[in-house]
Design brief:
Blueprint: H1 3-41, H2 50-66, H3 73-96
Helix pairs in contact: 1-2, 2-3
């Protein structure tokens, strides 16, 4: 076997590893987004809670990162909206949070 074939095999193996890493990142994002929705439906979190909005934001960002490997316009657009909605939720959370004055 010549060096070009060996190099080609190594490059293919590297591509598989990179694809696996992006899949893991994407699946982590999926679990965060779907998990936050399940927690909401089970009344374990409030839609105004920090946990819910951070899970959604983190999940959407991870899904967006995974799209860097296999781009899909529809998925990209929905993740941008998901991030925007999560940022609005976080803004409202911090805006409505009462400020405690130190004595």
């Amino acid at each position: 076997m010549d060096w070009a074939s060996q190099l080609g095999f190594k490059m293919e193996k590297d591509r598989r590893v990179i694809a696996l890493l992006f899949d893991i990142v994407g699946m982590s994002g999926t679990f965060l987004v779907v998990g936050s929705f399940f927690l909401l439906q089970l009344n374990k979190v409030s839609p105004k809670s920090l946990t819910y909005n951070l899970m959604n934001l983190s999940g959407a960002i991870l899904l967006l990162i995974s799209l860097c490997y296999n781009f899909n316009l529809a998925s990209f657009v929905i993740e941008i909206f998901w991030i925007a909605a999560s940022l609005i939720g976080l803004y409202k959370y911090f805006k409505d949070k009462p400020v405690v004055a130190k004595a």
